[in-house]
Write a structure and sequence with these properties.
Blueprint (H helix, E strand, L loop, with lengths): L8 H11 L6 H16 L29 E4 L2 E5 L4 E7 L3 E8 L5 E4 L5 H15 L4 E4 L5 H4 L2 H6 L3 E5 H22 L5 H8 L7 E3 L5 E5 L2 E6 L11 E4 L4 E5 L19 H6 L8 E4 L9 H11 L1
Parallel strand pairs: 5-6, 6-7, 7-8, 12-13
Antiparallel strand pairs: 1-2, 2-3, 3-4, 4-5, 9-10, 10-11, 11-12
Length: 310
C-alpha cells in the first residue's frame, strides 16, 4: 500500500492547475497518472530526494538580456552575466530555474542555489575553471527543493563548502521521496528523459549546517555575504542570499517573476507575504527570482501582488 507518500488524483489535479500544465484527454490523463504513481512507488525506498520547482511563468518585466549576452553551456543550460562579477545560471530540467554565481573580491566563487543535477553543476564548474582558473568555491543551499541543492554532489566532489540550514537538512530527509513522487507525477511520461533523470537523481545534504533562525554571514576579501531567513514562504525553509557589495538579492522561489505562485505544495500562504515584506530591509538593484527572466527590484512588490490576487 502506497499510503501517504503518494499524492492522489485530486492532489494531482490541483497541482496541474498550479503548474498550468496542458490539458490532455481524460483517457490519456488517467493512463499517465497511474503510470506515474506506479513508477514513483518504486523510488520511495531510494535515497532522499527533493521537491519540484514550478514550471516557469511568463516573464512579467523588462530584465531579459539580449541573446548575445547569454553564454550557452548546453542545450538546457546557460549563463546570463549581470555586471562584471555575477552570472545568473539558468537550467531547464524540465522547467527553467535560476541560481547565482558571484565572484568575490578575494577570488572566491560563491554559488547561491545550484542547477537541478550534479552533471549540470559540473558543467558550470568546468566553465568557471576555464574562465577564472582554480578558485575556492562556497555554495549556499536556499532550501531543500531540487532546484536549490540538486548539484550538491558535484560541489562536494570539487571540494566546495556547501552551507545549508538545519531545517533544510531535516526536510530533505523527511520529505524528499514524497516530493520526488510529486515531481514525477507532474512530468507525467515515464519514457521522457526528464522523468528518467529525476527518477534516478541522488540528493545529498549540505555539509556546513547553520541554525536557520540565526542565518549566516560570510566574508570574502572584506565583502560580506548575508543569508537571511524571513519566515515561511514558498517552502518552510527558504532563505535569501544578499550581496551588499553588489546590491544583489537572490530570492530563490520565495520571489515570483510570473503571474502565478507556481508550486505551493509546501507553501505557507498566510505567512509568505509577510516574509517577502521583510526583504525590503535589503537595498537591492537586482533581485533574482527562482524562475523567470525578470531581475529588477520591483519583483518584491510583484510577488506581493501575485500572492494577494490568488
Amino acid at each position: 500500500m502506497l499510503g501517504r507518500e503518494l499524492i492522489d488524483i485530486r492532489d494531482f489535479c490541483k497541482a496541474r492547475r498550479h503548474f498550468a500544465l496542458p490539458r490532455a484527454s481524460a483517457r490519456q490523463y488517467c493512463v499517465r497518472m497511474w503510470r506515474s504513481i506506479l513508477a514513483a512507488a518504486l523510488f520511495l525506498a531510494a535515497p532522499a530526494g527533493a521537491a519540484p520547482a514550478p514550471p516557469p511563468a511568463a516573464p512579467d518585466g523588462p530584465a531579459a538580456p539580449p541573446a548575445a549576452e547569454r553564454i550557452a553551456l548546453s542545450a538546457d543550460l546557460h549563463l546570463r552575466p549581470i555586471g562584471d562579477r555575477a552570472l545568473v545560471i539558468v537550467h531547464a530540467c524540465p522547467w527553467p530555474a535560476n541560481s547565482l554565481l558571484v565572484v568575490m573580491p578575494d577570488g572566491t566563487l560563491v554559488l547561491a542555489g545550484t542547477p537541478y543535477t550534479a552533471d549540470a553543476t559540473r558543467t558550470v564548474l568546468d566553465w568557471a575553471r576555464r574562465r577564472f582558473g582554480e578558485r575556492r568555491i562556497v555554495a549556499i543551499n536556499p532550501g531543500y527543493h531540487v532546484d536549490n541543492l540538486g548539484g550538491n554532489q558535484a560541489l562536494l566532489d570539487a571540494g566546495a563548502a556547501v552551507y545549508g540550514s538545519d531545517l533544510t537538512i531535516r526536510l530533505l530527509r523527511e520529505r524528499g521521496e514524497r516530493m520526488r513522487a510529486v515531481t514525477l507525477a507532474l512530468i507525467g511520461d515515464p519514457e521522457s528523459p526528464a522523468y528518467r533523470l529525476h527518477a534516478g537523481l541522488k540528493f545529498v545534504p549540505p555539509d556546513h549546517p547553520f541554525p536557520i533562525r540565526d542565518g549566516l554571514r560570510l566574508t570574502f576579501g572584506g565583502e560580506e555575504v548575508q543569508v537571511f531567513y524571513p519566515g515561511p514562504s514558498q517552502a518552510p525553509d527558504k532563505v535569501v542570499v544578499y550581496f551588499p557589495g553588489l546590491r544583489i538579492l537572490f530570492g530563490s522561489c520565495m520571489i515570483l517573476a510570473g503571474p502565478r505562485p507556481g508550486n505551493t505544495a509546501d507553501a505557507d500562504l498566510a505567512q509568505w507575504p509577510e516574509s517577502v515584506r521583510r526583504l525590503r530591509r535589503f537595498p537591492a538593484d537586482i533581485v533574482v527570482p527562482g524562475h523567470g527572466d525578470r531581475l529588477d527590484p520591483g519583483l518584491i512588490q510583484h510577488t506581493l501582488d501575485v500572492l494577494a490576487a490568488r
